[in-house]
Amino acid sequence: MSSDPTAWSNAIQNWYDESHNFVYGVGPKSSSAVVGHYTQVVWYSSYRVGCGIAYCPNQDSLKYYYVCQYCPAGNNVSKKNTPYQQGIPCASCPGNCDNGLCTNSCEYEDLLSNCDSLKTTAGCDHDLLKEKCKATCQCENKIY
User: Fold this and answer.
1) CA-CA distance, 37 to 12, in Å (whole number)?
2) Is 68 helix (H, G, I), strand (E, B) or coil?
3) Which of 19, 51, 131, 136 is deepest in the core (most CB within 10 A)?
4) What DSSP assignment string belongs to 106-127?
5) 38 DSSP assignment
6) Which residue, among 143, 106, 110, 144, has the nearest Cα to 129 in the 3D structure?
């Protein structure tokens, strides 16, 4: 949100600057710290982004709203304190790297949080996994 229009680079930088309030593996430095914009901007599996701005003239001060939609969505509750993998850039995606970022994204996403264990127990031929765990079952060696 902004009182005046600003460049997208400024809006995204403001979201990224929340990193000062974030500790990898722990989460926000305090209960009042805002970090959700930062964690979504750096979310490991989000690779498609669409953004827009809305002008709301009836608002008192913050008249411009900057919004982005990420796909796959990030900020998954079970991984919110580890939005990316620490380590050497592209170590987990040799041959699929561009400017220090992995480019082997999965076009599917899991709809359940326990797909890895379900795959081990039931296997990917099970109807539930075919429908709800597409990334786990169809994207081996890809990021999801």
Assistant:
1) 9
2) strand
3) 136
4) -S--BSSTTHHHHHHHH-TTSH
5) H
6) 110
Determine the pLDDT at residue 60: 86
* Closest to 106 in 3D by CA, of 75, 141, 64: 141
Confidence of residue 94 (pLDDT cuts 50, 70, 90): confident
How high is the pLDDT of residue 69? 96
**1-86 — its CATH code?**
3.40.33.10
* Token reading at 98: 């561009």
What values do phi and psi take at 51, rounded to 5?
-130, 155
* CATH code of domain 88-144: 1.10.10.740
Model confidence band, residue 20 (pLDDT cutoffs 50, 70, 90)? very high
C-alpha to C-alpha distance for 40 and 53, rounded to whole angstroms: 18
Residues 120, 113 contacting (CB under 8 angstroms): no
Mapped onto helix, strand or coil, the DSSP state of residue 102 is: strand
Per-domain residue ranges of the chain: 1-86, 88-144
User: What integer is the mean pLDDT of 112-128?
Assistant: 95
CA distances from 140 to 17, 97, 104, 106 (A): 33, 17, 10, 9
